[in-house]
Amino acid sequence: MHLSSAYDPQNIFAKILRGEMPCLKVYEDAVCLAFLDIFPQGPGHTLVIPKVAATNLLTLPADALGPYMVSVQKVAKAVQKAFEADGLTVFQFNGAAGGQTVFHLHFHIIPRQEGVGLKGHGQAGKASEEDLIAQQAAIIAAF
Ligand code: 5GP
Q: Which pTM value belongs to this model?
Protein backbone atom coordinates (compact mmCIF):
# COMPACT_ATOMS: atom_id res chain seq x y z
CA MET A 1 0.00 0.00 0.00
CA HIS A 2 1.53 3.24 -1.16
CA LEU A 3 0.72 6.57 0.40
CA SER A 4 -1.40 7.52 -2.62
CA SER A 5 -3.24 4.18 -2.93
CA ALA A 6 -7.01 4.40 -3.20
CA TYR A 7 -9.04 3.84 -0.03
CA ASP A 8 -10.19 0.22 0.28
CA PRO A 9 -13.72 0.17 1.78
CA GLN A 10 -13.21 -3.49 2.74
CA ASN A 11 -10.42 -2.73 5.25
CA ILE A 12 -11.13 -3.98 8.77
CA PHE A 13 -11.64 -0.53 10.30
CA ALA A 14 -14.12 0.41 7.55
CA LYS A 15 -16.06 -2.74 8.45
CA ILE A 16 -15.95 -1.82 12.14
CA LEU A 17 -17.21 1.69 11.29
CA ARG A 18 -20.11 0.23 9.32
CA GLY A 19 -20.92 -2.16 12.18
CA GLU A 20 -20.10 -5.20 10.05
CA MET A 21 -17.35 -6.29 12.45
CA PRO A 22 -17.39 -5.96 16.25
CA CYS A 23 -15.11 -3.76 18.32
CA LEU A 24 -14.65 -2.89 21.99
CA LYS A 25 -15.81 0.70 21.65
CA VAL A 26 -14.69 3.20 24.27
CA TYR A 27 -15.90 6.45 22.67
CA GLU A 28 -17.76 7.77 19.63
CA ASP A 29 -18.71 11.23 18.46
CA ALA A 30 -19.62 12.90 15.15
CA VAL A 31 -16.08 12.65 13.80
CA CYS A 32 -14.44 9.59 15.37
CA LEU A 33 -14.78 6.11 16.76
CA ALA A 34 -12.35 4.85 19.43
CA PHE A 35 -11.91 1.22 20.40
CA LEU A 36 -9.37 -1.12 21.98
CA ASP A 37 -6.63 -2.70 19.90
CA ILE A 38 -7.13 -6.46 20.19
CA PHE A 39 -3.37 -7.05 19.75
CA PRO A 40 -2.29 -4.46 22.33
CA GLN A 41 1.30 -3.33 22.71
CA GLY A 42 0.37 -2.55 26.32
CA PRO A 43 -2.76 -2.57 28.51
CA GLY A 44 -5.27 0.04 27.37
CA HIS A 45 -3.89 0.34 23.82
CA THR A 46 -6.62 2.35 22.11
CA LEU A 47 -7.18 3.29 18.46
CA VAL A 48 -8.97 6.45 17.36
CA ILE A 49 -10.23 6.47 13.78
CA PRO A 50 -11.96 9.26 11.87
CA LYS A 51 -15.39 8.52 10.41
CA VAL A 52 -14.19 10.01 7.12
CA ALA A 53 -12.82 7.38 4.70
CA ALA A 54 -9.15 8.43 4.79
CA THR A 55 -6.30 6.01 4.13
CA ASN A 56 -3.68 7.96 6.07
CA LEU A 57 -2.83 11.35 7.53
CA LEU A 58 -1.98 12.78 4.12
CA THR A 59 -5.37 12.02 2.62
CA LEU A 60 -7.59 13.26 5.46
CA PRO A 61 -9.33 16.43 4.23
CA ALA A 62 -7.71 19.38 6.00
CA ASP A 63 -11.02 20.59 7.41
CA ALA A 64 -11.52 17.23 9.14
CA LEU A 65 -8.10 17.29 10.80
CA GLY A 66 -8.84 19.79 13.58
CA PRO A 67 -12.05 18.15 14.83
CA TYR A 68 -10.40 14.70 14.62
CA MET A 69 -7.41 15.81 16.68
CA VAL A 70 -9.72 17.33 19.30
CA SER A 71 -11.30 13.88 19.60
CA VAL A 72 -7.89 12.15 19.75
CA GLN A 73 -6.96 14.44 22.64
CA LYS A 74 -10.26 13.76 24.41
CA VAL A 75 -9.70 9.99 24.16
CA ALA A 76 -6.05 10.39 25.28
CA LYS A 77 -7.21 12.22 28.42
CA ALA A 78 -9.69 9.45 29.27
CA VAL A 79 -7.10 6.71 28.67
CA GLN A 80 -4.59 8.53 30.89
CA LYS A 81 -7.17 8.93 33.64
CA ALA A 82 -8.44 5.34 33.42
CA PHE A 83 -4.95 3.89 33.86
CA GLU A 84 -3.58 6.66 36.10
CA ALA A 85 -0.80 6.64 33.53
CA ASP A 86 2.56 8.28 34.19
CA GLY A 87 2.86 8.87 30.45
CA LEU A 88 1.13 8.30 27.13
CA THR A 89 2.61 7.08 23.88
CA VAL A 90 0.66 8.38 20.86
CA PHE A 91 1.70 7.31 17.37
CA GLN A 92 0.45 6.99 13.83
CA PHE A 93 1.89 5.20 10.75
CA ASN A 94 1.47 6.06 7.07
CA GLY A 95 1.87 3.60 4.20
CA ALA A 96 3.25 0.07 4.40
CA ALA A 97 6.77 1.49 4.24
CA GLY A 98 5.90 3.66 7.24
CA GLY A 99 4.74 0.67 9.29
CA GLN A 100 0.99 0.96 8.65
CA THR A 101 -0.89 -2.35 8.45
CA VAL A 102 -4.54 -1.23 8.42
CA PHE A 103 -5.20 1.36 5.75
CA HIS A 104 -7.78 3.53 7.45
CA LEU A 105 -6.20 6.45 9.31
CA HIS A 106 -5.80 5.87 13.05
CA PHE A 107 -3.90 7.19 16.02
CA HIS A 108 -2.63 4.73 18.62
CA ILE A 109 -2.84 5.79 22.28
CA ILE A 110 -1.02 3.66 24.85
CA PRO A 111 -0.94 4.48 28.57
CA ARG A 112 2.54 4.09 30.04
CA GLN A 113 3.88 3.48 33.52
CA GLU A 114 7.32 4.52 34.67
CA GLY A 115 9.86 1.80 33.85
CA VAL A 116 7.43 -0.47 31.95
CA GLY A 117 8.29 -1.19 28.32
CA LEU A 118 6.06 -1.66 25.28
CA LYS A 119 5.64 -4.73 23.11
CA GLY A 120 6.83 -4.16 19.55
CA HIS A 121 4.41 -2.95 16.87
CA GLY A 122 2.97 -6.04 15.14
CA GLN A 123 4.58 -8.34 17.69
CA ALA A 124 1.86 -8.42 20.33
CA GLY A 125 -0.46 -11.39 20.78
CA LYS A 126 -4.23 -11.22 21.07
CA ALA A 127 -5.40 -9.94 24.45
CA SER A 128 -7.88 -11.90 26.55
CA GLU A 129 -11.49 -10.85 26.13
CA GLU A 130 -11.79 -10.57 29.91
CA ASP A 131 -8.88 -8.11 30.17
CA LEU A 132 -10.16 -6.05 27.23
CA ILE A 133 -13.67 -5.82 28.67
CA ALA A 134 -12.30 -4.60 32.01
CA GLN A 135 -10.12 -2.01 30.24
CA GLN A 136 -13.03 -0.90 28.07
CA ALA A 137 -15.19 -0.29 31.16
CA ALA A 138 -12.40 1.66 32.88
CA ILE A 139 -11.87 3.94 29.89
CA ILE A 140 -15.59 4.55 29.34
CA ALA A 141 -15.91 5.53 33.01
CA ALA A 142 -13.07 8.04 32.64
CA PHE A 143 -14.82 10.36 30.15
P1 5GP B 1 -1.10 0.05 12.09
O2 5GP B 1 -0.05 -1.02 11.96
O3 5GP B 1 -1.90 0.16 10.80
O4 5GP B 1 -0.61 1.36 12.59
O5 5GP B 1 -2.07 -0.44 13.24
C6 5GP B 1 -3.13 -1.32 13.06
C7 5GP B 1 -3.52 -1.75 14.44
O8 5GP B 1 -4.77 -2.40 14.34
C9 5GP B 1 -2.54 -2.75 15.06
O10 5GP B 1 -2.06 -2.24 16.29
C11 5GP B 1 -3.37 -4.02 15.21
O12 5GP B 1 -3.07 -4.70 16.40
C13 5GP B 1 -4.78 -3.51 15.20
N14 5GP B 1 -5.76 -4.42 14.65
C15 5GP B 1 -5.62 -5.23 13.57
N16 5GP B 1 -6.77 -5.91 13.34
C17 5GP B 1 -7.64 -5.50 14.30
C18 5GP B 1 -9.00 -5.84 14.58
O19 5GP B 1 -9.64 -6.64 13.92
N20 5GP B 1 -9.58 -5.20 15.64
C21 5GP B 1 -8.91 -4.31 16.42
N22 5GP B 1 -9.57 -3.76 17.43
N23 5GP B 1 -7.63 -3.97 16.18
C24 5GP B 1 -7.00 -4.56 15.13
A: 0.98
